[in-house]
Amino acid sequence: MATLVVAEHNNASLADATAKTVTAAKALGGDIDILVAGKGAAAAAEAAGRIDGVRAVIHIEHDLLDKQMPEAMEATLVALMDGYDALMAPDTTTHKAYMPRVAAKLDTQQISSVTGIEDGTFERPIYAGNAVAYVTSDDPKKVVTVRTTAFAAAGEGGSASVETKATEIGDMGSEFVSEELTKSDRPELTGAKIVISGGRGMGSGENFSMIESIADKLGAAVGASRAAVDAGYVPNDYQVGQTGKAVAPELYIAVGISGAIQHLAGMKDSKVIAAINKDEEAPIFQVADYGLVADLFKALPELEAELEKVGY
Amino acid sequence: MKVLVPVKRVLDYNVKARVKPDQSGVDLSNVKMSMNPFDEIAVEEAVRLQEGGTATETIAVSIGPAKAQETIRTALAMGMDRGVHVTTDEDLEPLAVAKILKSVAEAEGAELILMGKQAIDNDYGATGGMLAALLDWPIGQYANTVSPGEGSVEVKREIDGGLQTVNLKLPAVVTTDLRLNEPRYASLPNIMKAKRKPIEAKTPDDFGVDTTPRLTVVKVTEPKAREAGIKVDDVATLVDKLKNEAGVL
Ligand SMILES: Cc1cc2nc3c(=O)[nH]c(=O)nc-3n(C[C@H](O)[C@H](O)[C@H](O)COP(=O)(O)OP(=O)(O)OC[C@H]3O[C@@H](n4cnc5c(N)ncnc54)[C@H](O)[C@@H]3O)c2cc1C
Ligand SMILES: Nc1ncnc2c1ncn2[C@@H]1O[C@H](COP(=O)(O)O)[C@@H](O)[C@H]1O
To answer: Number of Cβ pairs closer than 8 Å across A and B?
Structure first.
């Protein structure tokens, strides 16, 4: 039994999602190799080799792998899968975009956004997390995407060798044009210890500065509901929920968010949930450990002041 | 350019799913069903491409039970030209759906397939990628903007870090994200007109696709419930509780 884990990285550095996916792979049992496919990704490959429990790192460089385009990843991975019984990758947009391509080429049914693995049974939320399915796969090769918030990161201390391989990528039919990445010094949403999110109740993008200054005090990431993104208050990558990002921080603070099932799907696994909403009937209070019925325009400045009092 | 839009009939997004007592799945009897919201966005985009003169013909295809016809009618009422209904009472996995869709796309000579990024019932998010691979077409996942050009389509994608623009050679598959457009409501005259638009009836056997499931559902359970919390009176109490009771500050 051997599993190939695909690394999450931006060429320059390895993301935490990789070590979390390794933990998921360990639950499957057998040997674990990591693929670092990119352009100028040697440092990321080195870092992957230090993850505990990894047998080998396969490092593949190609101009067309710079942005890990789905067609290039498919060609690279299909050629590698002969030696593996399972393929695993974190369920970030990079990997979700190509994993089904690989699965189809291997004639395998992908198991998506897995939150647990035990004795070959995969646990995955369905229907916006209102039900949890436990499934087994009869396919000879398993293709699995992993919801990384459900797995702790594997530790450091490994010393796997890095093996450089070549890949052949034919005409992809696709071409990278440009990118507008959201710039932020705050921690990444899916890995942050504290997340503070705003919803439609924020009323405008400018008002989000109240949330941002609290986030900066707490070292927190900023998230949002779909309604806040649709209204243009914040960029699309802030969206938390069934069809946005799943987060599970120590503390999630929901401000001016009603708590629709699609939003809850992305945050209800947080350890502690606090909610500020002026409507005491808002469904968010059904999942909140601490609810404050208040006008956020009054509560947020007070929150910032109180946090200062306790040393933030 | 012929545009194909696969549409799935799913539990309406406003309805909370209930797990059956025998843990065999989610109870879908006597609940409101609708078109998967991401597919509605795909239908809207197809109709706009036709209104803009880019699409020459728009075809909605649904794989599902007899009632999936209603879902196709909804697409036709929004303005699509005709439908293909592949009838099956089984709940097919994305791999089988993708294989059937491949045959439909080839039979129709589709040049662009617009579809949802994810069905909100099973939350797989797999069919689009599988279909693109089976056809060996490029894919633009999570489209925020779709701009067709000469023999190509430019897609602005919603990715975890922000936005990314790619250019795809046609034929291609594009999956929709929430910000692509706001689907229209079908007008009454268009609903009436849709009743007369043709829907071709097919079965998975017509395409020679083996639909045997690859996954075995051991059980489906309710998610872990969160214990009810408390309401606090003011911000100072909130901060005190978070710091001293929950220990998360
Ligand atoms: C296919 C599909 C996918 C979706 N995916 C997602 C997803 O991934 N993530 C997501 O979040 N949503 C998603 N949604 C949308 C979801 O159904 C809700 O529409 C959305 O979450 C609502 O956002 P909201 O809570 O900010 O807005 P609203 O529901 O409008 O709630 C605003 C809240 O703010 C409160 N408020 C207003 N003013 C104040 C004030 N001054 N002080 C305090 N409180 C105030 C109100 O009482 C209200 O509770 C999806 C929907 C569909 C159909
Ligand atoms: N039974 C079906 N009939 C038609 N289209 C489907 C069907 N199942 C999935 N799709 C399409 O594939 C997309 C992604 O579905 P999924 O991979 O199941 O999350 C949906 O948004 C639809 O566009």
So the answer is: 274
CATH 3.40.50.620 domain span(s) along chain A: 2-165
Domain B2-246 adopts which CATH fold?
A: Rossmann fold (3.40.50)
CA–CA distance from A142 to each of A28, A108, A112 (Å)?
10, 7, 11
- Centroid of ligand 2 to alpha carbon of A210 (angstroms): 40
Residue B69 phi, psi (nearest 5): -60, -40
The answer to whether residues B34 and B230 touch, using CB atoms and an 8 Å cutoff, is no
Nearest Cβ partner for B126 among A103, A194, A310: A103
A236:B144 CB<8 A: yes
C-alpha span between A291 and B54 (Å, rounded): 51
CATH of A2-165, picked from 3.40.630.10, 2.40.160.20, 1.10.1040.10, 3.40.50.620, is 3.40.50.620
pLDDT in tens, A157-172: 999 999 999 999 999 9
Q: CB-based contact (8 Å) between B117 and chain A?
A: yes
Which of A10, A130, A273 should we substitute to test contact with B (largest number of B Cβ atoms within 10 Å)? A130
Does ligand 2 come within 6 angstroms of the Cβ of B207? no
Domain borders along chain B are: 2-246
Min CA distance, A176 vs chain B (Å)?
A: 5
Q: Where in chain A is the domain with CATH 3.40.50.1220?
A: 189-309
Of the partner residues B95, B178, B238, the one whose CB lies closest to the CB of residue A104: B95
CA angle B211, B216, B221 (to 5 degrees): 125
Global pTM?
0.97
Provide ipTM, 2 decimals: 0.97
Residues B123, A180: C-beta atoms closer than 8 Å: no
CA angle A66, A80, A175 (to 5 degrees): 30
Contact status of B228 with chain A (Cβ, < 8 Å): yes
In tens, the pLDDT along A181-221 reads 999 999 999 999 999 999 999 999 999 999 999 999 999 99
| DSSP 8-state class, residue A175 | E
CA–centroid distance, B172 to ligand 1, in Å, is 33
Report residue B10's pLDDT band, with 50, 70 and 90 as the boundaries. very high
What letter does residue A202 receive in the DSSP assignment? G
CA distance B150 to chain A (A): 14
A20 CB within 8 Å of a chain B CB? no
Ligand nearest to the CA of B36: 2
- What is the DSSP secondary structure assignment for residue B155, as one 8-state letter? E
Residue in the structure block whose two tokens are 């209603």: B70
Nearest to A18 by CA among A28, A32, A2: A32
Q: Summarize pLDDT for B206-240 with one digit per residue, the tens.
A: 999 999 999 999 999 999 988 879 999 999 999 99
Q: Is domain A189-309 annotated with CATH 3.10.560.10?
A: no
